[in-house]
């Protein structure tokens, strides 16, 4: 049996831009993608702490070191610049993999820099 488990999490990211006229997705600073192992075009779930919105989209690579977290296309209606969000991905793991399983979790500061890594 496979179980779907949290694989990666960026906790308390601050939205830095919202672009309604973009075709869609979530722009994430390349440093943050690397920190938790999210790759471009991977499906992500986004939870807006400020307004309770939850939605799915895909990650696109933002400029390394920029701190960018950008809502694009329809997602731009789900939050405002300054809102705090949680970005997560999930993966399927077999019972044998669960003994060594742990998610990659990055706790972020107000500038979208990693202040603490859990489990990596």
Protein architecture, described:
- Strands 2-6-3-5-4-7-1-8-9 form a 9-stranded mixed β-sheet.
- The protein has a single domain, classed as Barwin-like endoglucanases.
- The longest helix has 7 residues, at 30-36.
- It is built from 2 helices and 9 strands.
- The model has no long low-confidence stretch (mean pLDDT 96).
- Helix content is 9%, strand content 51%.
- It has 120 residues and is mostly beta strands.
- Strand 8 (104-108) and strand 9 (114-118) form a beta hairpin.
Any chance you could write out the topology, listing elements then pairs?
Layout: E1 2-14, E2 17-19, E3 25-29, H1 30-36, E4 43-48, E5 54-62, E6 69-72, E7 84-94, H2 95-98, E8 104-108, E9 114-118
Parallel strand pairs: 1-8, 2-6, 3-5
Antiparallel strand pairs: 1-7, 3-6, 4-5, 4-7, 8-9
Outline = globular
**CATH level 1 name:** Mainly Beta
Widest sheet, order of strands = 2-6-3-5-4-7-1-8-9
CATH topology, which one? Answer: Barwin-like endoglucanases
**Total domain modules:** 1
Quaternary assembly: single chain
User: Mean pLDDT, as a whole number?
Assistant: 96
Proportion of residues in helical segments: under 10%
Give me the number of helical elements. 2
Strand tally, please? 9
Category from helices, strands and their pairing: mainly beta
Q: Which residue ranges are poorly predicted, with pLDDT under 50 across at least 5 consecutive positions?
A: none
List the secondary-structure elements in sequence, H or E.
EEEHEEEEHEE
Largest sheet: 9 strands, mixed
**CATH structural architecture:** Beta Barrel
Determine the N-to-C terminus distance.
25 Å
Strand content: over 45%
């Amino acid at each position: 049996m496979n179980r779907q488990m949290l694989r990666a999490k960026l906790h308390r990211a601050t939205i830095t831009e919202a672009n309604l006229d973009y075709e869609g997705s979530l722009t994430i600073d390349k440093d943050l993608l690397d920190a938790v192992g999210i790759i471009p075009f991977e499906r992500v779930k986004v939870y807006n702490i400020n307004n309770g919105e939850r939605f799915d989209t895909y990650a696109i690579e933002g400029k390394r070191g920029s701190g960018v977290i950008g809502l694009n296309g329809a997602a731009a209606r789900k939050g405002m610049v300054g809102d705090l969000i949680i970005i997560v991905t999930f993966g399927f793991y077999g019972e044998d993999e669960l003994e060594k399983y742990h998610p990659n979790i990055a706790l972020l500061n107000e500038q979208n820099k990693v202040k603490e890594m859990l489990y990596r």
